[in-house]
Amino acid sequence: MIMLNHSVTKKAITGILAAAVIGIGTVLGWTLTQPAGNSGELRLVTIKPGTPTKVIAEELEKQSLIKNALVFRAAAKLQGVENSLQAGEYAISSDMPVRQMLVMISQGQTAYQQFTIPEGYTVDQIALLLAEKKLANAERFKEVAKNFAPFPYMTANPDSRYRVEGFIFPDTYRVAKGVTEEELLTMMVKQFDTKLTPDLRQRASEMGLSLRDVVILASLVEKEAKMSEERPVIAGVFANRVKQAMPLQSCATIQYILGYPKPELTIQDTQIISPYNTYQIMGLPPGPIANPGSAAIKAVLFADKTDYLYFVADKQGKHHFSKTYEEHLAAIDQVQI
User: Fold this and answer.
1) Per-residue pLDDT reduced to its tens digit, 54-69
2) In a domain? residue 125
3) What sign for the dihedral angle of Cα 10, 16, 18, 20?
4) Which of 54, 90, 117, 188 has the fewest CB atoms lying closer than 10 Å?
C-alpha cells in the first residue's frame, strides 16, 4: 500500500481547483469578449417587463446572437446585473460581445427612444425638450427650423421667425438614437401632412383659406384656449374680427414675441413693435405662434357661428365672451374680482 502525505495531497487538490477556476475564468472571459458570429445585421429583441434572465438568454441563443445561454447567465451573475436587465426594444447583432450586450440591456440602452410633443409647443420649446432627451442639439435644431419647409403650403412670410413653426405635429414619436435634427423635423412635418386629411384641405378651400392661414389661426386658438370646448368659440371670435377688419388683439401673440408666457400683459407690452403684434397690425401675424393639434385645426375649420367679438379669461382659465366693447369691459371687471 502506498501512503500519501496528507499535506501534499491537500496542496495538490488545491492546485488543481485553482487551475480549474483559472481555466473557467479564462474561458468565460474569452466568451464575454468574443461574439457569437460576424454578422453586423441588427435584430430587434424585445424584452418585456419582468422577463427572467434565463428567458432572455434562451431567446438570444435561439436567435443565434449568443453561443450559449448558460454562459450568458453566468456572465450576468458575475457582473452583478442578473436582476437588473431592463425591459425595452434592443438592436443587437451577433458580432456584439456578451459583455456589450449586458451593458446595453442593464443600462436600458434601447434601440429607440420615445418622446412626446405637447399641443401648443413652440419650436424653441421643442428644441429644449429634444436637448433634454439628448436627441438633438437645441441651437442646431432651431437653426435648421428657420428655413425648413419641405411642403409648398409652408412657404413663409419673410418676417416669420421659423418657417417650420406650426407644422410640427404634436404627437408621441419613437426614434433611433443618432437621428439628426433634419431627420427629426422631416418625421414631424410628415406626420402633420398626414393628419391634414383631404377632407380638412377641402374644407379650408371651401372657406377661402389657405392651409397656412388655417394653421396660423389654429395656433392662436391653441394658445388662447384653456378648455377644449372653448376652441370653436374662440375660433369664431377670430373669424368675426377678420370679417369686420378688426385687429385680432391676441395676447398669445405678445407672449410669443416676449418668448415666455407672461401672466399679465401691460399696455407697454401691447405696444411692442413686431410683425407678430396683433394689437398693432391688421390681419394675421406672419406665421403660426405655436404648433397646434388636430382639435385646434378643426376648431378653425368648423368654428362656432356667433356674434362674439371679444373674450377674456378669468383666474380659472374660463373665457367670458362678449358681443360689444362695453360688455367686454364689464366682463374684465368681473374676472378681476
Assistant:
1) 999 999 999 999 999 9
2) yes
3) negative
4) 54
C-alpha distance from residue 24 to each of 19, 34, 65, 128 (Å):
9, 15, 22, 50
The better pLDDT of the pair 29, 311 is held by 311
Three-state secondary structure call for residue 112? strand
Bridge-based pairing of strands 88-92 and 172-176 is: unpaired
Same domain, 119 and 246: no
For residue 135, the enclosing domain spans: 113-194
What is the pLDDT, as a whole number, of residue 266? 92
Domain for residue 8, yes or no? Answer: no
Cell numbers that stand for 218 in this block: 389654429
Whether 324 maps to a domain, the answer reads yes
Residues 218 and 330 in one domain: yes
Per the CB < 8 A criterion, the answer to whether 73 and 98 are in contact is no
Phi, psi dihedrals of residue 175, rounded to the nearest 5°: -130, 155
The residue written with cell numbers 481547483 in the block is 17
Q: What are the cell numbers at 50?
A: 419582468
**pLDDT over 70 at 158, yes or no:** yes
Domain assignment present for 222: yes
